[in-house]
Write a structure and sequence with these properties.
This protein has helices at about 15-20, 40-45, 50-65, 70-80, 85-90, 110-115, 145-160, 165, 215-230, 270-280, 295-305, 310-315, 320-330; strands at about 170-185, 185-200, 205-210, 230, 245-250, 250-260, 265, 285-290. With about 325 residues, it is of the alpha+beta class. About 25% of the residues are buried. The chain is elongated. A hairpin with a 4-residue loop joins strand 2 and strand 3 (about 205-210).
């Protein structure tokens, strides 16, 4: 009677390799299941009256493996499987992994129910980009002057932003000052403005503008540039950030912490305006080091884009998205 050898396993895996490499945390129950990584426990639990079946399966697997391994390697495989007994399998020790799972699962497969759950955590490619309204061909552009109307028309053609959507944007000039460019012919004075623009629903952008004539022109230039620079900011439950953030930008050290619902925006006044335009309602922050206003705004805007998403953490940990939500974000 031929014992049930490791060569009866699919794809030529050996029981010895499965037991010593993966351990019991990846070995399923005695019932067959599509969610199991190994069938070693099924082999040991079957009756020994089907020796003819296992003999044929062993022979076919040996023949298949002989196409990929040398005769010396085949002898080593046969010797390794003969060294494994049923008692060794039953008395095996669990695998000591860094992040063990509490259940048996095949992480190489994607499940619609667990991996693509209906939650606010979605990749930016699949998210509705802040519900930007679409225009029809008969839309009329109303503007106070021809320049503003031309800019709105170009924004609609190139970025699909309607005039109604643009009029509802929150515009906040954060830094307005008088600057000079010193040349060999003298000082060239101009007005500088740094503006943040957002729809309070995930889209926010910043930009700088200069003008030699008046402050209003500098504000207008920075406003339209900021609208073109708008990007999507992911938000947890549409109110706060994913975890804690820290960024250093040209001497400015900014830290942001996620907070529960109802906490409010308790941060630097410049960071407050950026988060307000982005639609973030609960956050705590601290600005250390330099107090340069321009660098503070730019650091806050960049760090909101560099958030680590739950599906990226799950991919790095080798876990399911539902596990990461529960452990890291309380879902």
């Amino acid at each position: 009677m031929v014992s049930k050898s490791i060569l009866g396993l699919p794809r030529g895996f050996s029981r010895l390799t499965l037991m010593w490499t993966f351990g019991s945390s990846y070995v399923g129950t005695s019932k067959p299941s599509s969610r199991l990584l190994s069938t070693a426990s099924i082999l040991f639990s079957e009756s020994k009256d089907d020796s003819e079946f296992w003999e044929k399966r062993r022979a076919s697997n040996l023949e298949r493996l002989s196409h990929y391994y040398s005769p010396q390697m085949m002898k080593a495989i046969v010797a390794a499987e003969e060294a494994v007994t049923e008692n060794m399998f039953k008395e095996r020790e669990p695998a000591k992994t860094m992040f063990p799972l509490s259940y048996v699962d095949d992480l190489s497969k994607r499940e619609e129910f667990y991996d693509f759950i209906n939650s606010p955590i979605k990749p930016f490619s699949s998210s509705n980009k802040s519900d930007i309204p679409k225009l029809t061909a008969t839309t009329e552009f109303e503007a106070t002057d021809q320049t503003e109307g031309t800019i709105k028309q170009n924004l609609y053609i190139n970025h699909k932003l309607s005039p109604d959507y643009i009029n509802k944007l929150l515009v906040r000039p954060l830094v307005v000052k008088y600057v000079s460019n010193v040349t060999r012919l003298g000082k060239i004075r101009s007005y500088y403005c740094l503006t943040v623009v957002g729809d309070q629903n995930g889209m926010v952008g910043i930009a700088e503008g200069k003008d030699r004539e008046s402050v209003s022109n500098a504000v207008t230039k920075s406003k339209w540039k900021a609208i073109k620079n708008m990007v999507y900011i992911p938000r947890l439950n549409k109110r706060t950030i994913y975890g804690n953030l820290k960024k250093s930008y040209h001497g400015v050290d900014v830290e942001l912490w996620s907070r529960p619902a109802g906490f409010g925006l308790r941060a630097n006044h410049l960071v407050y305006e950026v988060c307000r335009c982005a639609g973030i309602r609960d956050i705590a922050g601290k600005v250390r080091g330099s107090r340069n206003k321009m660098n503070t705004v730019k650091a806050a805007w960049l760090m909101l884009q560099d958030q680590v998403m739950p599906h990226d953490i799950a991919l790095a940990r080798g876990k399911k998205l539902v596990d990461v939500q529960k452990v890291y974000f309380g879902h």
